Amino acid sequence: MLSLIIPVFNEASNLRPLYEELKESLSRLHLAAEILFVDDASTDATPEIIRELKSTDPRIRGFRLAQNSDKGGALAIGLREARGDIVITMDGDLQNDPADIPLLLAALEQGADFALGWRKRRADSLPKRLASWLFNAFVGTIFNVKHLWRHFPLPLRWKNETHTEKKPNGQEERNKNNTQKSPETRRCGGDSGGGHRRSAFFHPFFVAPDKERIEMNQKYLSEEMIPSIRLHDANTGFKALKRETMLSVPLTQGLFRFLSFILAKQGLTITEVPVHHRPRKNGRTKFRLARRVLSLWKLHKALRAAATPLTSPESLPAYTPL
After folding, report:
1. Of the four listed, 73, 80, 278, 281, which is most buried by Cβ atoms within 10 Å?
2. HEC profile for 107-129?
3. 258 and 312 in one domain?
């Protein structure tokens, strides 16, 4: 079964035409489906229109949050209430084209764990496109930071650990008080000459690495252990994946913005599918640059979520069925 999760906030003018397009697209799939409209505490006629549509089509289910959750809570509630094993999320502003739903499903059938609707030609304003590009570039760099350190394989150890240096006369001296503070070039790979030279700044609390630690670090940073993350449109709202996969990632408190990066970090196969993106015709955009910037304060939680998937459902905001 397919579950379409559509979080909406003050989208009364878009709901009816969106439903008509969804109905036409689903009629071609010949697949059992449900449509979940999750009202994120709208102040217009959005909940009334959801009730109206629900009365005409048994596939429609509606929910309303008590307070606005900045989309994340609406997504989490839709996911909790979904009955399908495959989930597609999309925005309710008519900028995502329901006709592209079969493309995302085809990507999953071809072996992808996660299909992203890549807005290759975005019909948004320049500031919005620029902000999205900067967000994707910055967060992608943070999630790939260990790949960057692959080029500087210098694992450090605490100053009070034992460090053995080989003297020119062949004698070894144990040095426990190495207070090196200036930049220095060391040879990585030990005395065999098989390493390469790197420059590094050593903090006074650390001393130079030994060969064993270098080998451990290089093994940890291997391509097999840490997948590279390069996504063109990680923050698109048009996504398709298995419900159980999405349940392993926190979505509330703005963490939904990191969903693609978290799943990519966990090693899932991600396919970016070019989709049709349309300009907004009705209503006002919900994009706020300040929210996007403030969400970066949650980056440490997103990195933790990538390392430790959820084992129990996250707490949800208060909501009621429509």
Report:
1. 73
2. HHHCCCCEEEEECCCCCCCHHHH
3. yes
